[in-house]
Every structure is written in structure tokens, then in C-alpha cells.
Amino acid sequence: MAIIQLLSIFCIICVPMEVMGKNGNASASSPRPSVVNVGALFTINSVIGRAAKPALEAAVDDVNSDSSILPGTKLNLITLDTNCSGFIGTMEALQLVENDVVAAIGPQSSGIAHVISHVVNELHVPLLSFGATDPTLSALQYPYFLRTTQSDYFQMFAIADLVTYYGWREVIAIFVDDDYGRNGISVLGDALAKKRCKISYKAAFTPGASNSAINDLLVGVNLMESRVYVVHVNPDSGLKIFSVAQNLGMVTKGYVWIATDWLPSLLDSIQPVDVNTMNLLQGVVALRHYTPDTDLKKRFMSRWNSLKYKNTTGPAGFNSYALFAYDSVWLAARALDAFFNDGGRVSFSDDPKLHDRNRSSLHLSSLRVFNGGQQYLQTILRMNFTGLSGQIQFDLDKNLVHPAYEVLNIGGTGMRRIGYWSNYSGLSVVAPETLYRKPYNTSTSNQQLYPAIWPGENSETPRGWVFPNNGKPLRIAVPNRVSYKDFVAEDKNPPGVRGYCIDVFEAAINLLPYPVPHTYMLYGDGKRNPVYNELVNGVAQNKYDAAVGDVTIITNRTKIVDFTQPYMESGLVVVAPVKEVKSSPWAFLKPFTVQMWCVTGAFFLFVGAVVWILEHRINHEFRGTPRQQLITICWFSFSTMFFSHRENTASTLGRMVLIIWLFVVLIINSSYTASLTSILTVQQLTSRIEGIDSLISSTEPIGVQEGSFAWNYLIDELNIAESRLVKLQNQDEYFSALKRGPKAGGVAAIVDELPYIELFLSSTNCKFRTVGQEFTKSGWGFAFQRDSPLAVDLSTAILQLSENGDLQKIHNKWLTRTECSMQINEVDDNRLSLSSFWGLFLICGLACFIALTTFFCRVLCQYRKFAMGHGEEGEVGVEEIQPARPRRSLRSASFKDLIGFVDRKETEIKEMLKRKASDSKRQASPSKDGQASSSPA
Question: Biased-composition ranges for Polar residues (predicted)?
């Protein structure tokens, strides 16, 4: 209805009388008409308009002079001025489409584009806009709107990448409150949210706002925390922002100003450079549409100063919108040429919806529908060519492909490029067209820019935030404890609190390079310990700015607040009553495990047997009856434990094995003595509760500190019945409950964090002990609201305190205590197992194996000389060993013969070898003599 009303108003005011006489029949022309009308709609006297007008007219001339495009057809450009007015722009748009245009180029205003898009939708006329960057214009609601420049959707994601690259978390958006400004900043908020950043405040002002209005706006902005400002305004009025900001001292060190593409477009169009203007912008970072430096672009720029149309409306400065305007004309011409080649016809017909009704005096027949508009639109969407601004091709969302921007840093009298941004590779110092040939990569580690110079000629990246200048100090919530006051407690002297946690916080604050005004606010009634989950929720709900104290960092809390680096390690432990273990008559067996005892005994016998085998043939001390030899093996084996063996070793192999074994025995004896001494002299303690597992499996009551997260942890994570848990407030209740025990109304054990338990044990002279191990690992930190930059800076300060030793000094000041180092169940933990000695046993076993292998190889060689041979030699040899047995060959020699050979003394074997050698010589001599006598003389 709004469109019909606008059309009605237009027809009453602007439609000429002769137009009202047109008939409603469709008009048609030949497939290749001699003249085709193309409209252009923009504000001529503006930064964008002054650059676009000569570019549009030059493009029309170039098309008409190019015989390869639209042969026989002349392109006629109809230009109308919107005068920066939405109403006038709408009227001019209606007047434009009255001229039967096949396409409309423009407008530059996003607000006017929204209204005109409804008109072209009705009349099927494609709208090619070179300046309307509002992302919402790409909606399906506007099918005939096509953007021939880059959408602000991509520009806002480029700014989000910039904010993330420099490590900032919050920005303040300063924008003009129209369709262009609001919708662009809305996309910026979404882009920042994906990077876990945000817009902390949206500072909007009306189009054409006065300096005083802008001054009031910036004064309020300057009182806020963030110092990163994103300026998204129109180029014709944007300099007001920086002029007022300079007067307020907001373009100095510590401030960050990021401008969208409006600022480079303005500066590019200023000829020559205005020094006063540049002084306002020192240190500003801005984005400019990136267009490749092609030969086509260079030739056009060389023509710019000589374009005859340029001076018709005043000075015209070149900027990127001139390229987009030029390419828009060529896009319309190329698509129209393809449209004609596909059989398209330029024809218009009356819209039945615009017929007069109910005797109305309105005449709307002058507005006609382009019959081939849908076909022409699809032809435009399929176009793909290289223009002055780069590749002209549309994606599925009707945006130009390969969106990219230059990142500029303003300094001196010019702009310095510090990098590029593209949706293909993010921030880079390499031109986008080079990166298109490489794999897609937008990872954080791949982002890179050259160094920038910030306001105040500062080369160091600004922190991006300060404490607000509105006089409000940080509200620090401190738990008002009634127990363990060494950590944190109320104090009657300023600042009202004291303790270990407070000293750590103050020391960290003093290390920051800026002041942090703060005030402490006690949380709790002072009669019982506060519930820490509620304290953290108060920070998350903005009741407090931070929480300082013994606040444990756990998963559920990290979901709603940000914690600093832990300044103290913590974890849940179990403390229980213990009793002293009485000495046992079998305590001498405890140093070794059963496995260790068995392996050690087996090796004593094994080594004794090996030494006996090696010494039996040459050492008479290892010979005798079988009974005597068995006793020798056992005695020798176990006497080495005390190095009191009587038998001497004669063989080299036996001595080698014995030396290695005595070394093993020395180590085992020393270890056994040390372990037994510890067991007999150190007090040993035991408890019915062995740790959290045995506590869970029992049904006895468990003590928990009031307000601690351990209460919820035991119920939710360990599934312990709430009825078993008993809240305890202070150390006296701890002591009393443990002493009474579960049968007298006390508790079997207490579950609490290690720092508290250490202080409790120290205060009770170590009458209780921790059992088992810590079953959670966590720490204490300071809680801040989500995305608070102070949490990051304090984490760095806490690390510095830890490195320089100040954190330990504060710890010693408040938490000096007696160490309860004796742990229960130490007997089992100190028992020596085989795992500590298997290397020694392995060495000894290898030595025995090598010695036995060498020994048996030598014995087999000796036996071979007696048992192997030819004829009678072998038999004689065997008979000498066992004369009572009948003669047999080597093959029939039994294993018993071999054992008998091995059992003989070494001296006897050597004597037999000598005798055998002499017999062999005698047998050989007669044989030689007989052969000599029988030979011829």
C-alpha cells in the first residue's frame, strides 16, 4: 500500500498532462532497437556522486564507440539527482522509470535503495547500485536489486578480524542512524560475536547532526571503558566526528579509531591533500575497497584528468566508486548484448495494478512494466568479465565474488597500506589475487599485518580500554568468612578486609601500568561462611565487578565469569582419624614384596648351581658324594648373602659369575637394611578410611565446609546421598566431629580443599591425617565479569608475582604452618618390589647364561675328540672312560656316557688326551716303516 500511495502522490504532482493521454496497450520494438535507455540515479553534488558522474558518462561513450558491444544500438544515459533526500530520490526514481529504462544504475544511498527496490520489483527493472552497501539489500525481498560494489557484510567481518588481530575485546560503534549505518553495525555485532568480542555501546546520531550533538555524543562515549571506536558514517559528514574528537582530546595516545571505506573515499577525492584535514586523522586505521592494479584500471586513471565531463558539476575527485560506476554501465551493456543475442526484446506493457479505480483522478499509465525484465535480470546474474574494479561475477547471494579490502594507516599527509583483507585468507600482507592461487586459509596463525602508527604517534598497540572516567571504582566482592580467616576476613582498618588473598590481589594490582580504583564490599552476614556459588553469580549478574578471595575455579563457574590465572593450587582431599600401627614380630619380612622374596631366593639357588657346574671339574671343594655336593650348593648360595662362603673359585668363568652375583647381593642387602630401618624406626599410621573410594562405598557421615563447592560436587558428581553430608563451620567443629566419630554423632572423615586442610592439620598438631590422594585438581583465582580485560592483565601480573618470588613471600607471611609430613599406609608404599631390581637380576642371569654356554661348548669339544673318530680310535677312547662296557660306535654312545665324561676331573681328561695323542703317533710309525720296506730298491 505504501508503494501505491507514493505512486499516487507522484502522479498528482509530477506526471505531465500529455503522459496521461497514453494508451495502455503494450508497445514493442525490434529485437535490436536503435536506442536503449539506461537510468542513473544518485546525488550528484556528493563525494561519491562527483566521482561517479564522469565515470558513468565515460562508460556510456566507451560502450557506444565499441562496435563489438550492442552493434547498431546506442546506449542513452538518463541521469537524475536525488539531492541526498529520500523523498526527492523516490520521486526522481518514479520519473526515471517513466522513460522506459531497461536498467537503473544507483542509487548511492542505502535508504533510497530500499524504497526504489519496491518500485523496480513492480516494474521488473534491474537496479544496479554502485554505492548502496547496506547488507540487508541482498535479501530475497529485493530480487531486482544488484550490488556492483562490495557489501558492508564483508567489510564488517574485516573489522572484526582487525579487532581480534590486535587483541581487543570490546568496541564502541559510532554511526549515522539510517539504514546504511544501523544495518552495517548490526552485521558488525554478529561478526564480533563470532570472535567472542562485542560492541559495548552503540553511539548513533541523526543524519546531518550538528557539532554540538556530536560533541554531546562523544563526551558520553569518552566516559566509557572501551577506547576502540568504529566509525561508520557518510563521507560527506564524517569529518565532523574527528574534528569534535580532536577538540575533546580523543585522538591521542591510548585511543583507537577504525573507519570504514567512507574515509578513504573522501581522502582520495580531495585534490590536493588538505593538511588540516590530515591532522585530524593521524593514526586512524581505515578500510578501502581493493581493486587490482590491472592495465585496464591504469589506462582509465590516466584518462581521469582529461575527462570532459568532470568539471560540469564542480571539482571531481577520483575514488573507488568511480570504478564501480564505470563497471555498472559495462555490466548493463554486456548483459543487454547477451539478452539480444538470446532473442530478448525490449518491450513494455501497462501494469493492471496501476489502472485507475473508482473514478480516481490519478493517472498511473505512464509507469509500465519491462516485459523482458526477468530474462534480462538472469542474464546479468550470469555475466562474468573483468572490469576496472576486478572480476565482475555474482555469487549465489548476488554479491560480487572475491570481496577484498586494503587496510590503511593514516599518517603524515597520506595513507600507508599495512595489509589486505579478503574473505579467502583474512588479514595478509600479500595481495589477494596472489593468495587465490593458494589453498584456502583463514586460521588465526595465518593473519598478518605490517606495524601501524596509532594516535599520538604511538607505535605500541594500544590496550584498547581504560577504567571509566565517571568516578565509579570497581566493586570488589569479598567473602566474609567466619573460619580460616588467614585467607580472607573482615578488618576494622582500611580497606576493610585483610588476609592472604587480599595481599595477592593488591600486589597484582600494583604491578599494572595503570591505576585501578576499587572498593571492597563484604559478602555474607559474618555468622556463617557465604555460599561461593551465589557470590560468583553476583558477579555474573553485574551486582559486583569482581570477586576476590578463596574462590575455586570450577567448570560451572567458568561458564558465567572469567577467572584470572590461579594464584594457589587446590584440590579436594579426605582427612580422617588415624591410629598408630603396632610393631609386628614379622616386620623383618616387610621390606620386600612376596614376589621379590621368591625371585631373590630362586636366584640364590640358581647362582649356586651355576658356580658348582663351573667349578666341579677343577675344584675339589665342589666334589664328593651327591649328598655332599647338594649341601655345598646350598651352603655356597646362601653364604654369599653375608660374604662368608668358604669355598674358593678356581675357574675364570666361576669367578666372573661370582663377582657379578656379589655385586647384586650388596645392592639387595643395602636396600633391605635401609627399608627395614625405616619400617622399624618411623611411626606408622593407619585408618579405616583409605581414600575417597572407600568413603563412597561406606554409609558413614561425611563432614563438608559450609559454603564450599565440595557439597554440590559430592552430591552431583560422586552421587553421595545428601543425608550423609554434615555442614561444618570452623576448625573447632572439624576437630570435634572427627574426634567423636560416626558412632558418637561425629563424622568418619572430612572432605575439603587442601589449603584449608593443611591449616587444620597444623592447628591440631597433626592428630589427623589425609588419606588417599587429591581426587580433584583446581586452583583459586579472582573472578571477573565475562570478557573483562582486567582478568587478562591480572593473570599476567600473578605470573610475574610467582616468577619474582613475591607470591611465596606473601604465602609465608600468612600461611606459615607445621608440616604434617607423615602419611598413613607408608609401609606398603615403601616395600621394595621386583620392579626396582629386575635390571640387576637380568645382568646376573645373562652372565650365568654366557658362562654356562662357554663351559658346555668346551666340554663338548673335548668329548668330540674321544667320541668321534674312525675305526678303533673312537672305541679305545670310550673304553678308557668306561672299560666295563662293550665297545660301541659314536652313534650308539648314550647321554649317560656324556654325563660320565663331564663328571671326570679336568686333570684326568687332559691326561687321557695326552695318552691318546701318543698312541696315535705309535700307530702311525709302523705303518710308515712297512710302506718304506716294501718299496722297490
Answer: 923-937
What region does 745 belong to: left with phi over 0, alpha with psi -120 to 50, or beta?
A: left
Helix (H, G, I), strand (E, B) or coil at 104: strand
Tell whether the torsion through CA atoms of 481, 482, 483 and 487 is positive or negative.
Answer: positive
Nearest to 824 by CA among 775, 771, 773, 774: 771
Q: What is the mean pLDDT of residues 485-493?
A: 92
d(CA 845, CA 336): 95
Fold adopted by 686-776: D-Maltodextrin-Binding Protein; domain 2 (3.40.190)
Q: Which of 473-487, 634-648, 892-906 has the lowest mean pLDDT?
A: 892-906
In angstroms, the CA 661 to CA 637 distance is 10
Q: Do domains 152-291+403-446 and 474-570+784-815 have the same CATH topology?
A: no
When pLDDT is averaged across residues 836-861 and rounded to a whole number, the result is 82
pLDDT at 241 over 80: yes
CATH for 35-148+293-392 is 3.40.50.2300
Please state the three-class secondary structure of 591-608 as a single string: CECHHHHHHHHHHHHHHH
Domain boundaries, the chain: 35-148+293-392, 152-291+403-446, 474-570+784-815, 587-681, 686-776
Which of 231-245, 457-471, 665-679, 893-907 comes out lowest in average pLDDT? Answer: 893-907
CA–CA separation, 331 and 670 (whole Å): 94
Top-level class of domain 152-291+403-446: alpha beta
Within 13 Å, how many C-alpha atoms sit on residue 793's CB side? 20
Residue written as grid cell 636366584: 603
Q: 879 vs 617, 859, 871, 875, CA distance in Å?
A: 20, 18, 13, 6
Q: What is the mean pLDDT of residues 525-554?
A: 93
Rounded CA separation 58/333 (Å): 13
Q: What is 474-570+784-815's CATH number, 2.60.120.10, 3.40.190.10, 2.40.70.10, 3.40.50.2000?
A: 3.40.190.10
Which residues, at least 6 apart from 306, have a Cβ–Cβ distance to it below 8 Å?
A: none
Note whether 234 and 179 are within 8 A (CB): no
| 406-440 per-position pLDDT tens digit | 999 999 888 999 999 999 889 999 999 888 888 88
415, 316 Cβ separation under 8 angstroms: no
Q: What does the alpha-carbon distance between residue 737 and residue 750 come to, in Å, rounded to a whole number? A: 9
Closest by CA position to 369, among listed 75, 112, 74, 28: 28
Using only C-alpha atoms, the chain has a radius of gyration, in whole angstroms, of: 49
For residue 6, is pLDDT > 50? no
Q: First CA to last CA across the chain, in angstroms?
A: 153
Q: What does pTM read for this prediction?
A: 0.67
d(CA 434, CA 436): 6
Distance in angstroms (rounded) separating the CA atoms of residues 422 and 428: 8
% residues pLDDT > 90 (the chain): 43
List helix spans (H) across 687-785. 692-697, 710-716, 731-740, 754-763
Distance, CA of 39 to CA of 59 (rounded, Å):
13
Among 670, 662, 643, 672, which Cα is nearest to 844's? 662
- The answer to whether 168 touches 307, Cβ cutoff 8 Å, is no
The average pLDDT across 821-833 equals: 56
How is residue 73 written as a grid cell?
544500438
For residue 917, what pLDDT band results from cuts at 50, 70 and 90? low
The DSSP line for 367-384 is SEEETTHHHHHHHHHT-E
CA 557, distance to chain mean position in Å, is 20
Q: Identify the residue with better confidence: 445 or 453.
A: 453
Strands 783-784 vs 562-563: parallel, antiparallel or unpaired: antiparallel
Q: Find the helix or strand (DSSP H, E) in which 6 lies.
A: helix 2-13
Bridge partners (DSSP) listed for residue 519:
475
Distance CA 228, CA 248 (A): 16
Residues in the chain, total: 937
